Amino acid sequence: MAEDEPWTNLGFEEAQAVYQSPSQNARALTEAWVAGGLFCPNCGAARLRQFAANSRVADFWCDGCSEEYEIKAKSGRLGRKVVDGAYGAMMQRLAASNNPNLAVMTYDRAAWRVSDLFVVPRQFFVPKIIERRKPLAATARRAGWVGCNILIGEVPEAGKVHLVRGGVLEPKDRVLDAWKRTLFLRAAGVEARGWLIEVMKCVEGLGRPEFELADVYAFEDRLSRLYPGNHNVRPKIRQQLQVLRDQGYLDFLGRGLYRLRD
Description:
Elements: H1 22-35, E1 49-50, E2 60-61, E3 68-75, E4 82-86, H2 87-93, E5 101-108, E6 113-120, E7 130-132, E8 147-150, E9 161-165, E10 168-169, H3 172-180, H4 190-205, E11 210-212, H5 213-217, H6 220-226, H7 233-246, E12 250-254, E13 257-260
Parallel strand pairs: 3-5
Antiparallel strand pairs: 1-2, 2-3, 4-8, 5-6, 6-9, 7-8, 9-10, 11-13, 12-13
Helix pairs in contact: 4-7
């Protein structure tokens, strides 16, 4: 990457830390870093534009392709959940055409530097990755309010487009290719996407690029528990593998053998 590209600098501008609250400063620093030149992983445009403060849905948008992004950042290691906003609003967003993509950042607070950054494209947002939190207690200022968590651990690796990994920038062309690889999911309804994503997770769970149909059948019990209303899981698995083949996500090699595309 060229040295003059603004997004090659992984350090925060500490002059942006103007609040007394550490959490407010962290948000200001991370948002300033994104606004300072992070490119759009959908179209490659050089900068993202920031929405007005306290926007209910997204934090940034791309003026090249209109993709929207919500930013979540934390210091240290990322767990399997990301705390988000109101549960009801999130569930409504799942079916919206402008449901924002989620950018998840971790950073080193001592060095004020980005450690990891990946984007979960909006097509991976299905009900199964949204966890309803308990209502706030009657004594809370917003008594009864119900929030949600995003279960990042339930998102397949194909649904995590890495821009920074272990403090190292990913090549821009690799980011754009990874983004394009799963855009076909946007054409599917929420339920159809759910099935495709679960089969993608099964394939990833095998841990090797080549696999047999019988290997995916081994996940039949798990898929039956996820979709108890479906009593023909094996035909459904074959159907999903065919869709993934037709969309260029994997290749069918014959005699029940498949291979993930790079």
